[in-house]
Write a structure and sequence with these properties.
Strand 3 (about 145-155) and strand 4 form a beta hairpin. The protein has a five-stranded mixed β-sheet with strand order 2-1-3-4-5. It is about 65% helix and about 10% strand. By secondary structure, the protein is α/β, with parallel strands linked by helices. The chain starts with a helix and ends with a helix. It is built from 23 helices and five strands.
């Protein structure tokens, strides 16, 4: 018995020793793996960086800081370009280059600047010296790219600026290349330097991003300046910024008449002015932008074409003799956009929007009959459900796509309006039951009250991202109107007009709110005055004006207000 027990103890001890030895080995393996991973990560990050190296002035010995001043100015210009394109991607769906350009770090090759930048001076000479040595040793193994330059005077007048980039590896790990940019001119004054450095910055940026979408640095420069002005316009809504953006884009086209990038962004500028004539000009720009080799740009241009044609059908009521052909063409462009880039949020948003409008059109052709709009097997219903899925896909790709959130709210709202004959309310328990059913079955529960709640939710989600988005406020006002919360509806309409005073649809919706006798602000005279203001906003767009008049008339009939009995009769037929 004792022998058996000793044998078990021996086996246990040997097992423990083996585990201990194995754990020590495993620990070293883990440490090695961590170190290797860290090294690979640092190496990868280093490839995305460019150090600013030595800048030498051989032009004027008295200007001792000229080399550093040129370096600082070049760095500022490069960061300005990068930041402009970075903002364009974050704020609006535009073609951009910022993901292709490395970040820039400055002056890490100089010991005094290195110590200041990492703040090692307070740790004593030994630690500071050790870290300085390691930082100097690091480039021997990883060789980060270094951007250096000098300004030289040859003879009495000829001046040359050299800028060189060494150890640059844009694509492959073990492939490095050296690039050189030069600018020479017979005579140069100090006042010429900023313009020369600006030219060099745009030339460097184009070369580092690669591709052949821009043939000249001048075109790219004016394009970038136009983009910056347009971004300012999206934030501040100053007409001067919009005018300047268009002017800069047109200057860019003087250098490259058919440049697809400039054409696309010019089309975006015109499209978002929400006018029929501008929308037609945008369509022409998008068509020209489709003629390019860049797959992603073609995807953006195709989705933009889909949106513009969708607006032509739904908002402006213009297009081909059979307007249904216009929205079918829009769906086709949206499908092309998705096929070109399945990760592009704006492509799925365009497909959702056009599919939604086609579903609306097919339902309208059958008089929006209740048996049609509640039939899950009817083609119009299938298209709307498909649009909902595409909007949700858009928001999974980009949670901040406030336009998709607003459009999804609009889909639910329009569907709810057509379901007015359904019961007005469902309990909160039923609402949660609908949500769980949709979540687990991916089915859409067709219920008016449920749709109105979802419309309010998605409007509010859009406004969380863009608190000044007038279309979301207008949709929110309409949703609260349908839920008979007229005070909230009034507040939403007022916010829409606060950010867009000439937004005709919001003016018209507010006018119709004053027709409601149950609303505490009921005032027929005020309703007609607001309606007149709405018509004045679109006085040159006859189709859009006709649509506003029709909607206002229908609301009066719905509220049992005889049109002939009020002074609005003349107003409703105004030219």
């Amino acid at each position: 018995m004792e022998n058996d027990l000793e044998g078990i103890l021996d086996i246990s001890q040997s097992l423990i020793d083996s585990l201990t030895a194995w754990s020590e080995t495993a620990t070293w393996f883990i440490v090695a793996a961590v170190v290797l991973s860290a090294a690979l990560f640092i190496s990868y990050r280093a490839r995305k960086r460019i150090l600013f190296g030595e800048w030498i002035n051989r032009y004027d010995s008295e200007q001792t800081e000229l080399g550093k001043s040129i370096a600082d100015l070049l760095l500022f210009k490069l960061r300005y370009i990068k930041r402009t394109h970075e903002l364009s991607s974050a704020k609006i769906s535009l073609w951009n280059t910022f993901e292709d350009i490395p970040s820039f770090r400055q002056n890490l090759d100089k010991e005094i600047d290195l110590l200041a930048s990492v703040q090692l001076g307070n740790y004593g000479k030994i630690i500071s010296g050790t870290f300085t040595f390691l930082f100097r040793l690091f480039p021997l193994f990883i060789k980060p790219a270094s951007l250096s330059g000098n300004i030289n005077l040859f003879g009495e007048k000829k001046t040359i600026i050299h800028i060189s980039l060494e150890n640059y590896s844009p694509q492959k790990w073990f492939k490095h290349e050296n690039l050189l940019w030069e600018k020479d001119f017979p005579e140069m004054s100090m006042e010429d330097i900023p313009d020369v450095i600006e030219e060099m910055a745009y030339r460097i940026y184009i070369d580092l991003t690669g591709g052949d979408l821009f043939k000249s640095w001048q075109c790219f420069m004016y394009f970038t300046k136009g983009l910056r002005s347009y971004l300012n316009y999206t934030e501040l809504k100053r007409a001067s910024d919009l005018e300047d953006a268009e002017e800069q884009y047109l200057k860019a086209l003087e250098y490259e008449e058919t440049n697809p990038v400039v054409k696309y962004n010019l089309g975006v500028l015109k499209y978002y002015q929400y006018k029929n004539d501008m929308n037609d000009e945008a369509i022409l720009c998008f068509k020209q932008a489709l003629n390019c080799n860049d797959r992603n740009l073609r995807a953006r241009a195709s989705s933009a074409m889909a949106n513009a044609l969708g607006q032509k059908y739904s908002r402006y009521k213009t297009g081909k003799p059979n307007s249904l052909d216009t929205i079918i063409e829009a769906v086709d462009y949206a499908e092309r956009a998705v096929a070109l880039n399945k990760k592009l949020d704006s492509a799925y948003k365009a497909l959702a929007y056009t599919t939604h409008q086609l579903g609306e059109a097919l339902a309208a052709r059958e008089g929006n009959n209740l048996s049609v709009i509640t039939d899950p097997d009817h083609r119009s219903t299938k298209l709307r459900i498909s649009a909902i899925q595409h909007y949700k896909r858009t928001l999974r790709i980009n949670k901040k796509h406030f336009m998709a959130s607003n459009n999804l709210a609009n889909l639910y709202l329009e569907w709810a309006i057509q379901l007015r004959t359904q019961p007005a309310e469902v309990s909160w328990l039923t609402t949660w039951k609908y949500r769980l059913t949709e979540f687990y079955t991916q089915q859409v529960i067709i219920d008016r009250t449920y749709f109105l709640k979802k419309a309010v939710y998605h409007c509010e989600e859009a406004l969380k991202v863009n608190p000044s988005y007038q279309f979301a406020f207008d949709n929110l006002g309409n949703a609260w109107y349908e839920r008979k919360d007229y005070n909230k509806s009034y507040s939403a309409y007022q916010n829409a007009l606060l950010y867009a005073p000439s937004y005709a649809e919001a003016q018209n919706d507010l006018a119709m709110l004053f027709l409601v006798k149950e609303y505490e602000g009921y005032d027929l005279q005020r309703a007609f005055e607001r309606h007149k203001e709405a018509l004045m906003c679109v006085k040159d767009e006859l189709k859009r004006k006709e649509k506003l008049i029709t909607i206002f008339k229908n609301r009066m009939l719905e509220l049992q207000i005889p049109v002939e009995e009020y002074m609005g009769a003349e107003l409703l037929t105004m030219d």
